[in-house]
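Figure 6 in text form: structure in, sequence out.
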């Protein structure tokens, strides 16, 4: 700015003074020509390329958004399917658990029933065996008691009781009296 003032002061007074803030006319013309050339090049070359590039980027972004939406829908469908399968698996596990519990109860009931019937059979068999042994012991005891009674009776009476019919009658009478005295004591 100082240079412009010095130049203004140095110019002769008769010439028309030019405004220091406005450029010279030839500068304006040549600047305008360069601007028009650059504007035409930008308008014809750069702007279409930029528009094409922006369109391509826009299409790529929209394609990626569409792919992301599709991937999200697939993920949601997979999640729903997984959730359904998980619920089905839990239901089946519950059914299997319930079935196993029922089967266990049936097995325990059958085992108890089998054990009870086996115990009843063993008890009945034991009672039958005990009764048979008691009968055998009773018969054997009667025989021994009869023999002893005949011997004792023969010793007491002083004669031998060799007659079997008579000896049996004496033994039977003695045992009947013995049983009657036991019943009366009870």
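Output sequence:
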């Amino acid at each position: 700015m100082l240079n412009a003032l010095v130049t203004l002061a140095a110019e002769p007074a008769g010439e028309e003074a030019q405004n220091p803030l406005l450029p010279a006319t030839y500068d304006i013309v040549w600047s305008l020509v360069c601007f028009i050339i650059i504007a035409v090049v930008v308008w014809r070359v750069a702007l279409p390329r930029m528009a094409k590039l922006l369109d391509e980027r826009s299409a790529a972004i929209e394609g990626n958004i569409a792919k992301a939406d599709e991937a999200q829908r697939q993920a949601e469908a997979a999640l729903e399917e997984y959730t359904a399968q998980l619920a089905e698996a839990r239901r089946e596990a519950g059914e299997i658990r319930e079935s196993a519990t029922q089967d266990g109860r049936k097995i325990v009931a059958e085992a108890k029933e089998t054990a009870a019937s086996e115990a009843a059979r063993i008890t009945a068999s034991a009672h039958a065996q005990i009764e048979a042994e008691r009968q055998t012991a009773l018969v054997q005891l009667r025989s021994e008691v009869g023999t002893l009674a005949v011997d004792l009776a023969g010793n007491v009476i002083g004669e031998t009781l060799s007659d079997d019919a008579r000896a049996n009658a004496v033994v039977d009478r003695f045992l009947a009296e013995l049983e009657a005295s036991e019943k009366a004591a009870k």
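Caption detail: The CA atoms of residues 72 and 78 lie 10 Å apart.
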